[in-house]
Amino acid sequence: MNASEERTALHESGGTEWDRIATSQQFQDLLALKKVFIIPAFIFFCVYYFLLPVLVGFAPKLMSARVIGTVNLAYLFALSQFVVGWTIAWLYLKAAAKFDVLTREILARVGVRQGGE
User: Fold this and answer.
1) In this structure, how many other beta carbons lie within 10 angstroms of the beta carbon of residue 74?
2) Which pLDDT does position 16 carry in this prediction?
3) What pLDDT digit, counting tens, does each position of 26-65 carry?
């Protein structure tokens, strides 16, 4: 059965293409793969982000320790959050390229035409 016949049969049975895609094992694997990256990255970033005010509140002497001139650990920690944010974004871009490939494979398997092609 080709993709057109599958769509016709699916339409006649009352289902939609989306239902078929969403219940496919490939799609479920894609969602699981995304969760493996997104959830730990989100948790890490939130913990790292809120660690600064927690440390400033509960360990002010540690965070006010001078490192270079008037620059203390709190300033360095705050600046490091930019680096961490950009690093997570860069890692997500690399992972998203893999997600996109898997998405194209799923759509090709189902026979959905993709925009721009």
Assistant:
1) 19
2) 81
3) 999 999 999 999 999 999 999 999 999 999 999 999 999 9
Alpha-carbon 93 to chain mean position: 9
E strand intervals along the chain: 66-68, 71-72
DSSP annotation of 59 reads -
* CA-based nearest residue to 19, from 29, 113, 79, 11: 11
How far are the Cα atoms of 18, 55, 83, 112 from residue 49, in angstroms, in the given order?
37, 11, 12, 41
* 66 contacts: CB under 8 Å, gap ≥ 6: 72
* pLDDT for the residue 10: 54
CA 19 – CA 49 distance, rounded (Å): 38
Asked whether the beta carbons of 8 and 14 are under 8 A apart, the reply is no
